[in-house]
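wait is this the right file?? whatever heres the structure
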């Protein structure tokens, strides 16, 4: 019985599923993008993303754990080298699944799963995103100068400036 077992078994035994996910993860890390069915891609995402998170900290322990999942020296070198350099600042969401339609033979839903930071086309589109704006607590009608004029210090300066302006006007009138 499958009580409480929520992951997709993909119609395989545990050892076959583990070997398949290991091979797919290695291929994804080496090639940065693979085409597969949607069900396999969703399971692969759950398999690969914790490995990438673990690879951010390059220790012997983390390398051994990653090797136990991937069983590939080339995959480990690529994961702890080039992949981690690109995704170092990212906190998660290292993969992207793009649906591509249905397979001709059995009508299975196909997709492309790729590492997010390695798709140059998507990165170019993402750069000219909208600028972030800061929200202030000021009322929308007031500008900075209006706010500055309403402060007591600004009002005191205005009062101090007014008599000087009157004296200048009196001097100009007497000169005429």
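ok assuming it is, sequence goes like this
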């Amino acid at each position: 019985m499958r009580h409480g077992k929520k992951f997709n078994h993909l119609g395989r035994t545990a050892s076959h599923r583990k070997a398949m996910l290991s091979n797919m993860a290695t291929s994804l890390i080496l090639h940065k993008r693979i085409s597969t069915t949607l069900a396999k891609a969703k399971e692969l995402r759950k398999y690969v993303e914790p490995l990438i998170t673990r690879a951010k900290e390059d220790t012997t322990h983390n390398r051994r754990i990653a090797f136990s999942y991937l069983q590939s020296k080339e995959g480990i070198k690529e994961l702890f080298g080039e992949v981690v350099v690109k995704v170092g600042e990212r906190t998660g969401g290292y993969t992207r699944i793009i649906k591509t339609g249905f397979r001709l033979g059995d009508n299975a839903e196909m997709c492309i799963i790729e590492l997010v930071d390695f798709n140059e086309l998507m990165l170019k589109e993402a750069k000219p995103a909208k600028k972030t704006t800061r929200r202030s607590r000021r009322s929308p009608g007031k500008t900075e100068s209006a706010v500055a004029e309403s402060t007591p210090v600004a009002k005191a300066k205005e009062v101090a400036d007014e008599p000087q302006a009157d004296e200048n006007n009196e001097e100009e009138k007497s000169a005429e």
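The beta strands are 33-37, 95-102, 109-115. so i think its the right one actually
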